[in-house]
Amino acid sequence: MINGVNSTQSATYTAAYSATPKTEAKETASSNETGVVYESTVKSSYKKDNSALIAQLKADSQNRINQMQSLVSQMFEKQGIKIGTADDMWKTLASGNFTADAATIAQAKEDISEDGYWGVKQTSDRIFDFAMALSGGDSETMEKMKAAVEKGFQQATKSWGKELPGISSDTYDAVMQKFDDFFNKESSVEE
């Protein structure tokens, strides 16, 4: 599921980012590894060329995706589960035909918690902020970004092989609410 959403996120980011969010390295509470913490700092005005920022955001996202994939791959390897493609991995996760050790479960719970990197708030903020950055806040382009996000979640569902878990639905709803709020604000400014 994570890869499907991450692929979706990456595709959405590629199709959509240029706000001024910042990332910073911080020590995680559960380990000595340095991780990326996303803090949205999107302003009402957007720069036209944020290619360096977009590249950094994509690299930071890819780093977190790689960390998650490594965690899952190691877990599967210990159980003798062979994965050929990313879709195979997500379908195996969706099937539930695997076990996870306490440390992996604890890390996953932290990552998807309310304040976690893969939690609803941070993930929906990243997706929406990326769309805003790529669109420069242009309403017509934001319509395209919204359609790209919808398509990305459909692709993630296909990769997962069945209905996405609740956290994914909650993230989708949160992103769509952010788009609705944006369009409502835009229409009230035009009046």
Outline the structure in words.
With 191 residues, this protein is mostly helical. 66% of the residues lie in helices and 6% in strands. It has helices at 2-16, 51-78, 86-95, 102-112, 120-135, 139-160, 166-190; strands at 22-27, 34-39. The chain has a two-stranded antiparallel ribbon. Strand 1 (22-27) and strand 2 form a beta hairpin. Helix 1 runs parallel beside helix 5 (120-135) and helix 6 runs antiparallel to helix 7. The longest helix has 28 residues, at 51-78. The termini are far apart. Residues 1-47 have low confidence and may be disordered.
Write the SSE topology.
Elements: H1 2-16, E1 22-27, E2 34-39, H2 51-78, H3 86-95, H4 102-112, H5 120-135, H6 139-160, H7 166-190
Antiparallel strand pairs: 1-2
Helix pairs in contact: 1-2, 1-5, 1-6, 5-6, 5-7, 6-7
Uncertain parts: 1-47
- Give the overall silhouette: elongated
Distinct helical segment count: 7
Please report the distance between the alpha carbons of the first and last residues: 42 Å
Number of extended strands: 2
Query: What strand line-up does the widest sheet have?
Result: 1-2
Query: What proportion of the residues form beta strands (DSSP E)?
Result: 5-15%
Order of helices and strands: HEEHHHHHH
What is the overall pLDDT average? 76
Report the sheet with the most strands, covering strand number, pairing sense and barrel closure: 2 strands, antiparallel
Helical content class: 55-70%
Alpha-beta classification: mainly alpha
**What is the CA-atom radius of gyration, in angstroms?**
17 Å
Notable features of this structure?
mainly alpha; 2 strands; two-stranded antiparallel ribbon; 7 helices; 191 residues
